[in-house]
Structures are given as structure tokens and as C-alpha cells.
Amino acid sequence: LKVSQNGPAALGALTLMAFSVSPVFYSTNARGYSLLMLFALITVWLLYPVLIPQKNLESNYFKKTSWTLCVSLVVIWSIGTWTVPTFVYFEGALIVWVGTSLIFSQQINRANSLRLLICIAVAIVLFYIQYFVIIGPDMLKVAMSHAAIIPTKYFFSQLLNEWTQPWTSCVSLFLAFSFLGLCVISCHNLNAGIAFATFMILPPLIGVLAANLGLSQHLPEPRVFHYSIPFFFVAVSVGALWTCEWTSGYLTKGNDTIKRLL
Question: Which of 22, 157, 214, 244 has its CB surrounded by the most CB atoms within 10 Å?
Fold first, then answer.
């Protein structure tokens, strides 16, 4: 509710989450992907008042909890990459969000953004230590050999299938609502629109880019981007809600016109 700033949209996103196949399956079976989704939501929930200032939020929020917040975030991100290493793509999206806010936003404290970038850098260094220092090369090679591989041409279709089950027949409608929702969010608050677009779109794109540049051995399975689903559903809910309101207003205006003609 804090992130969407819209009660009906938040309720709609929660309803979609409650009936979506992937979140239900992974949470029921206690898979690590559910933990990553929790970490992603906690991160955005904590950083939202820092990078997207609101009139009803305290301007010195970050200053009051600076060390606690920094340490907590680094711990959360490190546990996330230890659980599933591809959570580092979420950290990459965080760099873009914080960096964009640092460059373009005039309302936030630049020192806070720089502090957050340092936190992300520390988390990425810890990720490197976890997988390239603590874990031996032979063990890492064995672990990588068991990872699922997916051809690039099937990646985005399977990603959308993962995000929209059991409504896969309505993928085009979900995409239209999500795009419209991002536009509506951006019109109300550009920083919020950038945040939602960043966490919904960037992690999969970073995964594809890393595979094509040879930074990773293969393209990750779409399920590793499970943590992007809540942001997708919020955008879908906002887009659907705006469409309903626009349609209702259009119909009301049409009825008034007909009454005047009669």
C-alpha cells in the first residue's frame, strides 16, 4: 500500500498474488524464490521513502536509521545472493534505480544515494567472495553444470508464462495493463514509475545481457526472476483500475449526453 499509494490497486495486486501459480507453488513448497521475493519487497519498502519522497513522510527518515538500514540491507542482499546467486541481477537493477535518482531527482539527499551505492557495492563484493573465494572452482563448476538452460528465443515467452499463470491466455491484456499502469504511475510520480519499471523489466534484461556478453555461462531460467512478479502485478492493477475509471467516466458522460438529447 505504501509503494502503490493506491488502496484498490494494492488490493488488486494482492488478489493476483493470491491466485498466481508461481507465488503459491514456491511459498507452499518453501522454495528460496519466495525468500528472494520477500527480500525484494523489504528493500523497496525500506528505500521508498528515501528515494521517492512523499509529503506525508519524514524527510530525515534515512538519517534516523542510517547505520541500521545500511547494515540490514547489506545482510538481506548477501543472504539473497547466497540463496540464489542470480539475485545479483536485482542488485544490478538497484544500482540503476539509485543512480537514476541521484542524477535526475532534485528532492532527495545526494549523500543518502551515494551511501546506498556504497552498500550495493559492498553486497556485490560479498557476492564475489561467496562464489569465487569461499566456494572452490571445482565445486562451482559442478553446481553450474546442474543449472537449467533455456534458449534465448524461448526466454521471454516462458518469463511471461511464469508471471501470468493461470491466466496465460490473457498475456496480451496483462502486458497492456502493465504498460498503462507504468504510464499512470509515472504521471503521478516519475521516480515511482522509474522504480517500478526498473524492478519489473531490468533484472531479466540484465540476465539476458550478461549471458550474451559471456559474463554468465548461460541464460538463467525465468523462474529466478520470481521477485519481479509483485511489481508487475501492481502495474497491472493500476492499469486495470485506470481503465475501469476511464471507461466509467466515458459511459457516464455518454449517458448524460443521451439524456440531454432525449
Answer: 22
Of 181, 157, 187, 151, nearest in space to 244 by CA: 181
Q: What angle do CA 229, 231, 234 make, to 5 degrees?
A: 110
What element of type H or E holds 49?
Answer: helix 32-51
Q: Provide, for the chain, the percentages of residues in helix, strand and coil under a 3-state DSSP scheme, each rounded to the nearest 5.
A: 80, 0, 20
Tell me the pLDDT band of 147, cut-offs 50, 70 and 90.
low
Q: CA 193, CA 46: separation in Å to the nearest integer?
A: 17
Angle made by CA atoms 29, 35, 38, in degrees to the nearest 5: 125
Q: Angle CA(36)–CA(159)–CA(143) in degrees, nearest 5?
A: 55
Q: How far is Cα 194 from Cα 96, in angstroms, rounded to an integer? A: 10
Question: Could you tell me which residues come within 8 angstroms of residue 174 by beta carbon, excluding any fewer than 6 positions away?
Answer: 160, 163, 164, 167, 232, 236
Residue of 75, 73, 132, 79 whose CA lies nearest to 98: 73
- For 207-229, what is each residue's pLDDT tens digit? 889 888 877 777 888 888 999 99
Q: How far apart are CA 77 and CA 91, in angstroms?
A: 8
- Say yes or no to pLDDT of 174 above 90: yes
